[in-house]
Amino acid sequence: MNALAVLAAVLSLPVNGSAHRSCDGVPNTVLPAQRPSDLDPFSFTHIVYSFAYISRGDWKLTTTQSDDDELIKELQGLKKQNPNLKTMWAVGGWAFNDPPYQDIFSTMARTSSSRAAFIKNTLSQLSAYGFDGIDIDWEYPGTERGGVEEDGKNFLLLLKELQAAIKASGKRVEVSFTAPASYWYLQQFPIKELQDYADWINLMTYDIHGSWDIKFNTGVLPHTAIPEVNQAVNMMLKAGVKIGKINLGIGFYGRSFTLSDPSCNVGGCPMSGPGIQGPCTKGEGFLSYGEINHLIQSRGLKPEYNATSQTMTLKYDNQWIGYENPDTITKKLEFVLKRAMPGVLIWATDLDINNNLLSAVVGKALAQLPSSTDCPADGVWPRTEAGKKATVSCGSGGGTRARPCFGPGWGTEESFFCGQSLMMVEAFGKCV
Questions:
Q1: Which residues, 6 or more positions from 311, have their beta carbon under 8 angstroms from its beta carbon?
Q2: What pTM value is reported for the model?
Q3: Rounded CA gap, 137 and 202, in Å?
Q4: Would residue 304 count as lying in a domain?
């Protein structure tokens, strides 16, 4: 049975970060501010702190909020509760490819000397801040977003040289990067070659549609429809990426639209622009799950499930919102398991309310854990008390070993203590 990795991006915006958020005209409880210490460290395999930027010229990672150092320290404190939790620092993001930053990734990756400086600084800063890895969120290589045609080739050199430096350091540093669900942007990535230098590829299977579609006259459409999610995964496979490298992106938010004609309110109906901004996230065309839930409760609205897209729709006045709820997220997890994908990336934990969506992810993932006594084909773990060593005879040779065992003939060659195994077992501290 598959075990899932659960990665969560902890949203940290340069101006209005989740730790400082307030709502206009509604109680702050509609979408409470979130600090790292509010997170359950046993609900994730990895937490990705987003975002760092890159300083021009010296190519160092830079924080984007005055209290990032404090928040990062608070995040790393979660490891005291769950020593198996991994933390990563995401660099970049969509806004980092907007002016005045849009050429920084491209310029940094362009020469061997600038790449070397970035790599040296990054490894030093990851260690100083206590991060276990880096997630590179370059959105996107190529001329469309402020770069040059050679960006894809240079990105490959960057990851290759980063992995060489990690190997030379003798330390374990995890590396991931984000990839778009759109061929228009993905074509700039030498994606087949890039996978060899990353532990994960986080496929952003959200924002497939939005108010920007007005120029294509597609009308209103859900941004996470399963058929298009499936197409995005198949696009990656066709490009030569192994399914075991791809984490599926799950959005804890909806995309909203203003209908041209309120009487035409089904998928594909014309729009006049983005939906009205939410009272807490304060951006047109975007609503957190917390804000959507508030709309449902305060207006007595009845969401509709679309069986084709396997998403939820909310309609009122001239507004149309496509989003996920716990049931549709469970279907996304079923898709991940069916396709034998290694895990999911959540964007972002602070957009949930009362952990409603997170619980759907965690509940489905927990169901994939091995039983308390079984290890598939490779031995049987005895029941073990927390803090005690468990041993099992694994068929790959060498007799009895202290190690987690997840498949025929393989496991990690290391001492194993209850609650310190891999993947979801690691994340939830379960003893097997």
A1: 222, 224, 225, 226, 305, 322, 323, 324, 328
A2: 0.83
A3: 9
A4: no
Q: How far apart are CA 53 and CA 59, in angstroms?
A: 9
Which structural domain range is residue 347 located in?
Answer: 5-252+326-366
Dist. CA 316–CA 392, nearest whole Å = 59
Which residues, 6+ apart, have CB-to-CB distance to 327 below 8 Å? 305, 360
Per-residue pLDDT tens for 365-407? 655 544 333 333 233 444 444 444 445 443 433 333 343 433 3
Are the C-beta atoms of 249 and 205 separated by less than 8 Å? yes
Q: Residues 77, 81, 87, 93: what is their CA dihedral angle, to the nearest 10 degrees?
A: -70
What digits encode the pLDDT tens for the residues 81-109?
A: 888 889 999 999 999 999 999 999 999 99
DSSP alpha helix (H) spans, 26-111: 68-76, 104-110
Q: CA triplet 354, 358, 363: central angle to 5 degrees?
A: 115
Final residue of a domain: which of 314, 344, 366? 366
How confident is the model at residue 337, as a pLDDT? 86
Residues 88, 141 within the same domain:
yes
- CATH number, position 56: 3.20.20.80
Residue 156, CB-side half-sphere exposure with 13 Å CA sphere: 12
Q: Please tell me the distance from the alpha carbon of residue 162 to that of residue 90, in angstroms, as a whole number.
A: 15
Distance CA 195, CA 280 (A): 37
Domain termination site, one of 366, 387, 417: 366
